[in-house]
Amino acid sequence: MDILTLDNATYTATGVVSDVESILWVERYLEPGEFKIVCEPSPKLRTQLALGTLISHMDTPEVMMVENHEISETLGSPPKLEVTGRSLDAFLQKRIISNAGTPAYNRTNKEVIDIVYNATPSAIALQLLTVYVLGSA
User: Fold this and answer.
1) Residues 57-74: tens digit of each pLDDT
2) For the whole prediction, is pTM greater than 0.85?
3) Which of 52, 100, 122, 134 keeps 20 to 30 A from 77, CA to CA?
């Protein structure tokens, strides 16, 4: 299976990942898919599969994003780089609803949870109208 790196803006192939020992590629219908690539921990592969890199392969339209690098070592064998990530569906799960004017990262966890769980559809619509149509932040 040839893993392709993709351009983040156009989703066109920009390169082929080689020197990979094993690939686990799981696609799901209702849940985000996931992948795991095991390879030698070379600087070339760490650069080619940097965090946030979009990847795919020739036999699927599914696009996944690199989310983690982990080097595993066992006694008597060389270290291995494990690159993992999930499909772009998982990227959308990281969205946060915030009141206009106060960024979510300046709020406590409780405040963010209160905003998300107590928001009504009309409040969310008003938030989107304020931010995207009127240009207020």
Assistant:
1) 988 889 999 999 999 888
2) no
3) 52
Under the banding of pLDDT at 50, 70 and 90, the label for residue 137 is very low
- Bridge partners (DSSP) of residue 55 are 5, 64
Tokens for 116, please give them: 């998300």
Q: Chain-centre distance of CA 88, in angstroms?
A: 6
Cα distance between residue 36 and residue 14, in whole Å: 20
Answer whether 82's CB lies under 8 Å from 38's CB.
yes
CB atoms near residue 81 (< 10 Å): 19
- Residues 89, 27: Cα–Cα separation, whole Å: 11
Contact partners, residue 21, CB within 8 Å, separation at least 6? 38, 39, 40, 80
Q: What are the b/e assignments for 50-78, b being 16+ CB within 10 Å?
A: eeebbbbbeeeebbbbbbebeeeeeeeee
Asked if 41 and 102 count as a contact pair (C-beta separation under 8 A), the reply is no
Tokens of residue 94, six digits: 């990281």
